[in-house]
Amino acid sequence: MNREKARFILNIFIAVVVPAAWLWMFFGSVGELAQNGIGSLKYFTVLSNFMAAIAAIYWLACRKGSPEKRDFAERFKYFAAAAVMLTFTVVVTFLGPLYGYINMFIGANLFFHGLVPLAAAFEIVFLCDRQFTKRENNIAVITPLVYGTGYLINILINGMGTWPDTNDWYLFFAWGYLVGFVIYGAIVAVTWLLAFAMRKGQAAYLRKHR
User: How far is CA 41 from CA 38, 46, 54, 115, 190, in A?
Assistant: First the structure.
């Protein structure tokens, strides 16, 4: 199978399984940290996966289009891959040990926490020919920056609230605003590092296989 065909199949997979997994979660959540109903859309995990699905749909629509549209599609996919890989990294390094890996990869979360992020990163590193710049590496952090800003504004306007109706559903500010901002900064830094790792991994792979 050539790389272009592999990319086509992989993007069909992402475009289909993300909305399907969300509907699964919508009508009956399974596992830790899975929430049914429209409330699931407040989580970065769900939003980043939808970003990956939209990027996949856009790539599929533009792969025979103009060079400008194809180039934007590649950049969009790179930014989306960094976002969903942030979800994967947090699950593997923090939430998995805390709640149990089986709970983190059961039901819809098997796709949201594992398969979609890994598929998105695999595509960038091993299937994508378009190489990414340092500037694009920096732009990749916009996704958590925008989400985090909205998260903080919601708290400042509506208050913390009390569990389970808290506006600090990730408990970033449970130990005070200073700790919350440190966590926020760490998340942005990790996103940058993930985008950097994909960029360097792709460059190394292309050097070896060209």
Answer: 6, 6, 15, 19, 22
Angle between helices 177-209 and 142-158 (to 10 degrees): 160
Q: Where are the beta strands (DSSP E) in 21-178?
A: none
Task: For residue 38, give every residue at least 6 positions away whose Cβ sits within 8 Å of its Cβ, in sequence order, or none.
Answer: 26
Cβ proximity of 148 and 187 under 8 Å: yes
Length of the chain: 210
Q: How does pLDDT run across 6-56, given as a tens digit for each residue?
A: 999 999 999 999 999 999 888 876 555 556 678 889 999 999 999 999 999
Containing 205, the helix (H) or strand (E) segment is helix 177-209
Express each pLDDT in 60-84 by its tens digit.
999 988 999 999 999 999 999 999 9
d(CA 151, CA 73): 27
Cα–Cα dist 47/25, whole Å: 13
Q: In the chain, count H helices and then E strands.
A: 10, 0
